[in-house]
Amino acid sequence: MRDPLSVLTDAFTAFLFGKVETTRLPVRTSTGQAQAVYLPTAAPGLGDSGVIIGREVYSGKGYIYDPFQLYGQQLPAPHWLVLGESGNGKSALEKTYVLRQLRFRDRQVVVLDAQGEDGVGEWNLIAQELGITPIRLDPMAALDMGIRLNPLDPAITTTGQLALLRTIIEVAMGHGLDERSGFALKVAHAYVNETIVERQPILTDIVEQLRHPEPESAEAMNVDIEDVRAWGLDVALVLDRLVDGDLRGMFDGPTTVGIDLDAPLIVFDLSHIDRNSIAMPILMAIVGVWLEHTWIRPDRKKRIFLVEEAWHIIASPFVAQLFQRLLKFGRRLGLSFVAVVHHLSDVVDGAAAKEAAAILKMASTRTIYAQKADEARATGRVLGLPRWAVEIIPSLSPGIAVWDVNGNVQVVKHLVTETERPLVFTDRAMTESSSDLTDDALRAAELEAEERAAAFVEQHMGDSESTVA
């Protein structure tokens, strides 16, 4: 029972000031208005160790990403897929990412540079800045003692050589080798490796052996020598294209001496190859296997393999299978594969849909720049993006992208420093239009783009009504 004096005091206080305790009624409002009452919150970042990419648009905090730091904890695989229409900042992101990674002493990068202008690849300026000569694969230059990569280089295991030869032939033919053709190739390769020891075997040796197989090859399988020759005819015709056709000179000789595989950056300049020809996937297959056997080593270095126009890899079943094996093998040795693709539909609707899905599944990091609405919806379905992210993609300004790092989805503004700017914006149209702007105008344009993106994110993530008590 309460003390009479306390009861009297409470009654007197209530008479003077009204009820001591009041009940606060709930207020119905929106989260956009409630942000004035509650402190703003943001999704957790990826940590503070690694390479800074830019600024997270919604919270304004720095965005740091490094697959080697995140692997095993927040990332099941260190591989990365970059998507988006041309002119939205994919190239600038790749180049600044590589430049910033190379500041770490235990990093090494290989770039397959499939684009360029004025006779050089897009990465030529960066290579020059670092004192590196790109490995320019050019059929015309190869005829004049240019760069050669030998698929039969002794640095590649015999098993790897045979797998590479099969892949080259299957890509060119558009279908797998049947058992008889595969047998003819196998015995020709074995004979060449056994008999040519004083020099590097070359493709001409394989073609010659397919055209004129040894009797022992037929006797081993109890078949006629003419049958073995007939089985290997189509294979010989395909390989002859690398020896005496439009790709001659690049692969039909010993590997060029002096290619520095210990340089921090290795650039394969493929800009002289027709991107829409069958030559490009063949070239990528040869480079991929050659690197697998000569570059990736258990020396505790962290390696990045960046491929421009990567749909040439993912869209071909045979090349995709080859790279799928490379990704699985390389993951154990510290390899991060970066695939740059304009449209996901280029690969998921093609002949290599199964292989493409397997490679995409390995990419735990996905960065999506602006796309048309239909393409954004298709991308969202394939990658499992949240609805708000799919809706924002078509309105993203250049330099701003949706990042999905194993389910951690953020909208990120990529920042380029003044030192990096002349190295990464290599497109002539881009540099000329940018030079017309003053520094203040350029910063104002970037700020306006950030504000538009932040407003769009707020609209789609924070406009649902809620009840605040």
From TrEMBL:
Protein name: ATP/GTP-binding protein
Gene3D superfamilies in alphabetical order: 1.10.8.730, P-loop containing nucleotide triphosphate hydrolases (3.40.50.300)
InterPro entries in alphabetical order: P-loop_NTPase (IPR027417), T4SS_component (IPR051162)
Pfam families: AAA_10
Domain of life of the organism encoding this protein: Bacteria
